[in-house]
Design brief:
Udp-n-acetylmuramoylalanyl-d-glutamate--2,6- Diaminopimelate Ligase, Chain: A, domain 1, UDP N-Acetylglucosamine Acyltransferase, domain 1, 2 domains
């Protein structure tokens, strides 16, 4: 039996979901009904009273308890989930149709794994902002929004603006003229150089350096000495970007480095000056992107990828781990996988490996 909320319950649940989404921290409990509304899920439940039961966490089927929500994307997984003590199961409409759920509530969604991740965010319980710590140092003309947390020994330079709900971690340094949006999370010992701009809901993990000088030098043809080319551009990081620990992103030389909305950078990634990373790009650890290169929307870069200067990786291209892109090279083909050094379409790369294997075999004869 599919049950929806009453108009009043629906309004209350949507209000709670909006409140949770708008804050930089979240309450640790929602009712099943509120969770369903927040996830735009259809509730299938024989006992409407169960929709008022609390959900406090997400869990695997093995570790679930009566306050947990789990997900299932296959028939076997759904059977196991229905036998678990979980409060409810996120699953698809196709699986729900053939399931004998008994009194176990089902929350029907299009992508259960995605809804599970969204539920985890809604149920995340971070401590509320604690104000400005006594040991923090604030410069002149610092503008702080409401519900700001500045932790111990953080240093904030002159003319910095930090919008509401943002948290600045212990020992971080925010230089002059930086702009940080709403509900950002800056973890301990992050360094953000002068003039960098962060959009709303940006997460920057410990040890990151944002806006440092790019690696650009001009060589004197007479004596071989190097002089730094001006590194006076900007760095803009758009909304909903996450940057992993100890990652570095250089400012532009004369113009701009930009990471567009929704992109996710792993730990130990380096982004050079004048680079443009498109929307919803995923970059795995130890990848290096040289100056003035561009990465199209939706691209996926595996671990230890190396990209030369002025290269252009197209939208939705997939670069396998360890792939190398030559300077000024253009890679095109949405959904295509490129591998090897230099990177080439996967089929061609595998053919090359097969040829090398045959040559090696003949050499042993």
């Amino acid at each position: 039996m599919a049950l929806g909320p009453s108009p009043l319950e629906d309004a209350a649940a949507r209000g709670a979901a909006a409140l949770l989404t708008g804050l930089g921290y979240h309450g640790a409990m929602l009712s099943l009904r509120q969770m369903a509304v927040a996830l735009s899920a259809q509730c299938i439940c024989a006992d409407q009273e169960r929709l008022s039961e609390p959900v406090r966490r997400v869990a695997s089927v093995r570790n679930a308890d009566k306050f947990s929500i789990v997900f299932a994307e296959g028939e076997v997984a759904l059977r196991e989930a229905l036998l678990s003590p979980a409060a409810a199961v996120l699953t698809t409409s196709k699986l729900a149709e053939g399931a004998a759920s008994g009194d176990k509530p089902l929350l029907v969604v299009t992508q259960p794994r995605l809804a599970f991740a969204q539920a985890a965010i809604l149920l995340r319980s971070d401590p509320p902002p604690a104000g400005v710590h006594a040991t923090a140092i604030l410069g002149a003309n610092v503008a702080l929004g409401s519900d700001i947390s500045v932790e111990a020994y953080a240093v904030i330079g002159d003319n910095v603006r930090i919008d509401s709900g943002t948290r600045i971690g212990t020992g971080s340094v925010i230089a002059e003229g930086v702009r940080i949006g709403k509900d950002c999370r800056i973890y301990p010992r992050v360094v953000i150089y002068q003039g960098v701009s962060l959009g709303d809901r940006v997460t920057v993990h410990a040890g990151c350096v944002l806006g440092s000088d790019g690696f650009g030098y001009v060589r004197n043809a007479i004596n071989g000495d190097y002089t730094q080319f001006p590194q006076q551009g900007t760095l803009t990081i758009e909304e909903d970007v996450e940057i992993g620990a100890n990652t570095t992103v250089d400012r532009g030389a004369l113009e701009e480095t930009r990471i567009r909305r929704g992109s996710k950078l792993d730990n130990l990634v380096h982004v050079g000056h004048n680079v443009c990373v498109g929307r919803n790009v995923v970059i795995a650890a130890q990848t290096g992107i040289s100056g003035s290169s561009s990465i199209g929307d939706g691209a996926v870069l595996g671990g230890q990828v190396g990209i030369g200067e002025h290269a252009d990786v197209g939208g939705d291209v997939i670069l396998g781990g360890g792939a190398g892109v030559l300077s000024k090279k253009k890679l095109r083909g949405a959904g295509m996988v490129f591998w090897g050094r230099p990177a080439q379409p996967l089929r061609e790369y595998l053919k090359s490996l097969a040829v090398l294997a045959r040559l090696a075999g003949k050499a042993k004869e």
